[in-house]
Request: fold
Amino acid sequence: MTARKRRRKLRVGRLLTVLALGFACIVLLAGLGLFFISLRDLPSFDTAALSTANATTVYDRENKPVGTIGVENRVPVKIKDIPERVQQAFLAAEDHRFYEHHGVDFIGIFRAAITDLLGRGLHQGASTITQQLVKQSFLTPEKTFKRKIQEVILAVQLERHYTKPEILEMYLNKIYFGEGAYGIQSAARLYFNKDAAKLSLPEAALLAGVIRAPSYYSPYQNPEAAKKRRDLILDNMSRYGFITAREAEEAKKSKLDLATGTPENRKYPYPYFIDYITSLLVDKYGSDMVYKGGLRVYTTLDTRIQKIAEEVLANSKNYPPVKDVQGAMVVLDARKGYILAMVGGREHKGRLAWNRAVRPPGQPGSAFKPIIAYAPAIELKGMGPASVVDDIPVNYNGYQPQNSDRKYRGLITLRTALTHSVNVVAVKLVMDSVGLNQAIDFAGRFGFKIDPARTGASIALGTWEVSPLELASAYTAFANEGIQSRPLAILRVEDSSGNILEEYHPQQKQVISPSTAFLVTDMLRSVVENGTGQNARLARPVAGKTGTTEKGTDLWFAGYTPQMVGVVWMGTENNRSMPRAYGGTYPAAIWRQVMARALQNVPTQDFSRPADITTATVDSKSGLLPGPNTPPEHQITDYFAAGTVPTEIDNTHVPVEVCATSGLLPTANCPERVVRNLVKLPYEVPDFVLDYLERVPTKTCPVHNPASGGFLPPEQNAGQVPSEGGFIP
Reply:
């Protein structure tokens, strides 16, 4: 190598050294700068912050405190009462060198820093248990190098003030285990309905695994992930010498034997309503703020009505004698959509309880007919309560709707069809009068997002799953002159100092015209007064609709007064049918019991009638103005929206001479004949269609039978008249 090359290589080496030293100095200076900035903003080491946080306070509609969120789910326990194996499970999960470091595991931090730098962000944790306690007690959850430095400094201070057992005790009493439970004792009671002192090895490992990501590793919400995480921690316990490999394998064979009941010390007032607003708050503000931030939440809850609903729904006498029958109910302010009461089941099983009031438990059945069939027929096609539809068997591409009693009524008005929940008429309205796609779009006005690809003509009978809360919201439009109100549970949220974080107001939308709302409501009044919903009658104007699914697995009653809307659902846990139980039996009776007491001090009020509503008398078999041959019994007076009163004269009734004895076409042997005004149709109708007994006959009267001494009995010739005319809802 020449001297020139050696000098050139020496200069390059020196340059690289200078650059390296310069870079190191920059990093050092930047680090020192960040360190001093971290010191300047370092939170004070206030030991009070290590105590439990403030719970959120919930207020009712009268601004009275009714409960808290958070405090009931924290039960402190001493470290001496926590078994060593339980402690070791958490050490194996979070910090197996806990008793070897002084608050900070520098080897772990170095490894995490390299990972984070390579990943261009803070992704690797490596926080010790001491650091985690510091983070929860003193710092914000943001991930920055500045916060990490502060965490390290405070962790060292914490280790100087407290012993290792004291730190571990504070940690186990403070960490969040999901579902509103803070601390090992509350978690043990939540998931296993036992004290922390009695936790088994696999149970301890499960709880230790939950804290990494409580929502993801919840054994209720994601049991497979929870079990995998538990088994990993058991392997770690074996790896770090806390248990043997054999003990780990035995523990991994254990099933997730979770608690299903509600521990006495975890009961809280108005649980389903509190659960509902808790989920709303957590979605908005996060679990830490809700469970520890001391929020003040002002709600729409009417505690008097809530207590009534809870009491009625819990009464076993209000349910059919079928195993595992459940019920739910929602009561709304009809005008503002305020949720006055919410009950999601007969009994509440902790914060993990399934709230059937807000999660679709099943199909609404006929309770959906006013939304999908009758309202669009009135609004879009100008039909009304006196419009006539032919209730006879039909077929839509292989789908043949049947009435629940397997009988048919022939020409009937919409009012009669809705009063007695006639299925064929609802399907014909959707398919023939309105059109399937238009009916689905119309239901979308109420907020129902129905996929046309997943349904067909059966949608008219309520085969799309909804929740009681969704259905109650839709019915506010009928009760409130066509204006639908979205359900509202929270009015105002304040922080712990009283500063307003959010205010909420009723969200309303005109989804149908006032005249449509009135006409549907008046027909639904007939349902309660004379039809399938008579069990819901009160000493005041009431409108409502029953609902029973095809196999009797879901029973509904949706009813309302001008002031309140209430929806009741009933069903079984395993979709078992409920024989001889219908929406008009148990659910309607529950609705009556709750609403009678809820409205006890509310003035009686009638539904308002829009100015464009008029009355007219029409023929009940044609829907047209009465003609000269319309018999008096077929003349009905009903409501019409402006511009929908018919102008044509009825021509379906014609005078026909029939045999006085049989009502059939006379023969030469009939001794007596009469002229009757009967309905003439252009097609043949089966005898089992009930109201067509007054149609023009197509059969002749039997001849005189000398052997019997007279004519055959009339009932053998006049068609089959059923002994019962009532209809199942």
